[in-house]
Design brief:
This protein is an alpha+beta fold. The chain is built from seven helices and 16 strands.
Length: 326
């Protein structure tokens, strides 16, 4: 039987999706052209990590276009569901000023403001704003599209010879016309871990560029030739100077900012005297459940947003959902 701490509380909101990715169809150019010509096909626009969403009552949906409505841009096959093909097109959003990845209209800077967007009006939003409000299908489509767009915009030249590469396989391969080398979307595995001590306190920390009160759990990238468990132990030792043991995997979700896959763990502290690496950690503290609740209620502390796996790990340790987002 699973204990409470072995089963995540709440869904991993960016790990949802109902689309068959249809990998076998990506290399079928004739099928891709037929699918694009099909009036039933739907297109999700993506621009610097944003898409258009629409609130209808209490529900938020991605705006899906027909291929005839879609502007020119690179096409990425996202998959098929119920005989409907879904593509993403990397192109400017209609009526939305351009901007850097992660920027949003000021009134859409939080989940609450997106909930308050005009009913029925298409507005721009990124995964941090809309990922937790979209349904399973739309959330999965947007995560997928954002991840592909981020890869394509940073890997358009061959790393061997510098020749501009060409998009193939429905957006899942770039091929160098000079040396015929193939290049595939990159995913960077990162461990993220909730550390508990013998008194069942939780370790939270913040980076040097984060404002005071914005705390989360520790995380770091997996190095070449390293296991996930070894990465957990190494990262904790490097960042706060304590030893941990018994890393236990709880779940994973994509975090395409720009290309991470977050792998969530619990681990047990063997030591508790914190020595933060000041280049990586500005503050690190142990919290009991009572201390965490008091800090949240007073406004001293804010937790990561609900779309993050960090929030799910913290709430799993705490034992129930919590209030207060960044």
């Amino acid at each position: 039987m699973e204990t409470a701490e072995e089963q995540l509380i709440g869904p991993l909101l960016l790990a949802r999706g109902t689309i068959d990715r249809s990998g076998a169809l990506r290399a079928d150019d004739a099928w891709l052209e037929r699918a694009w010509a099909d009036p039933a096909t739907r297109v999700l626009l993506v621009d610097n990590g944003r898409t258009l969403v629409r609130r209808t009552g209490d529900e938020v949906h991605a705006v899906l276009l027909t291929t005839a409505e879609a502007p020119p841009g690179e096409r990425y096959l996202l998959g098929v569901a119920d005989d409907v093909a879904y593509f993403a097109v990397a192109a400017p959003l209609p009526g939305v000023p351009g901007g850097h990845a992660g920027e949003v209209n000021g009134r859409l800077s939080s989940v609450m403001s997106l909930r308050d967007a005009p009913d029925g009006q298409a507005v721009p939003a990124g995964l941090r704003q809309a990922g937790g409000l979209l349904g399973d299908r739309d959330a999965g489509l947007l995560v997928y599209a954002v991840a592909l767009e981020a890869w394509h915009t940073t890997h358009d030249y061959c790393p061997r010879c510098g020749t501009r590469t060409e998009v193939r396989a429905g957006g899942h391969i770039r091929v160098c016309p000079q040396d015929a080398s193939q290049h595939f979307p990159r995913v960077d595995p990162a461990v993220i871990m909730l550390i508990r001590d013998a008194d069942d306190r939780c370790l939270l920390a913040r980076g040097p560029h984060w404002p005071e009160g914005r705390l989360s759990i520790l995380a770091g990238f997996v190095e070449p030739g390293e296991s996930l468990e070894a990465a957990v132990v190494r990262e904790v030792a490097e960042e706060v100077g304590i030893a941990v043991t018994n890393p236990r995997y709880l779940g994973s979700q994509p975090w395409p900012f720009p290309r991470s896959l977050m792998l969530g763990f619990f681990a047990e502290a063997l030591t508790t005297d914190l020595t933060p690496d000041t280049e990586e950690i500005a503050e690190a503290r142990w919290f009991s459940r009572e201390e965490l609740a008091e800090a949240l209620e007073s406004g001293e502390l804010r937790l990561p947003p609900s779309v993050s796996i960090a929030r799910r790990l913290i709430e799993t340790w705490y034992g129930k959902p919590l209030e207060g987002d960044w």
